[in-house]
Amino acid sequence: MSAMKFNRFSLCFFDVLGFETRFSDLGLDGMLRKYVALVDLVDARNEHMGRLFGEMGFKESAYWLSDGDAFVVSRLHGAYASDSLLVWTHTDFPEARHPAAVDLAPAERERRASEPAEGWLYHPIPCDNLLDICNEMICHSLEIGLPLRGALALGEAVLHIECGVYLGQPLIDAARMEHSQRIIGASFTRSFMKQIVPPRYLAPFDKHLKNARDDLFQGSVLDWPRHWRATRKADLRAIIRSLNTLPAAADIYDNTLCLIDVSEARAEMFDRPEDMRLGNAYPQFSTKELALRACAVKRITGSGRE
Question: Which of 186, 208, 237, 253 is most buried as measured by Cβ atoms within 10 A of its Cβ?
Fold first, then answer.
């Protein structure tokens, strides 16, 4: 335990809606299979990135694309217990976190972040990878009949899979935010917005809150219906209605249908090719002096960035 260090993490805490009823219907084996199917999405994404870039020596960092944009390799982590799932990633690049930055004073960190060539090393890692996997987990949870409700937060924590230790303020914030809403999906806490979040991931929405003045809430939820439209052809509304079987939870599904309406009203926004460029969303990757590792690869159009 003495080797543990406090780093910043960006995370999403999920709860399974109607867990007790679904556990009663599915049994231990059936529920476990569905949980594994969701957490396996994290492992599959890491393995995909490893197959693409591991043999070329890519580590957690930023690299050039052949079109002059940048892309980021970052590792995801996932765990589950009881009715909850957790997915997370480091907020900071290796150079800006423990142990490399153990003695880095805030003023020096700020100075380094202002440098046009390598300042990006001291900005948060772009959160696209985490938000993409959260989108996919929510969508897949609907396909397997295990709808998820969650919240996204950022802050210092100890997240140690091998020791089973999960402690920190972002976990507390995300758990509180998750419990204070009535919807399928994930809400953004104020702490998560201490970093840049590309607007295509945000859907302004607050109808789902139990307390409209919740101080944790940032004002937006994850626009996972946008991801559904980009990756699936099934009727999303029909699936939501088919899962609405408990009168006590009807408002959750009604709010989710309203979120789909909000998302569809913004469907033509933020989907231009230039909106997908990392340099357009994150100013630290747009400087003329930008210095990245020279491992240029070609962008492939699809459900992800590369």
Answer: 186
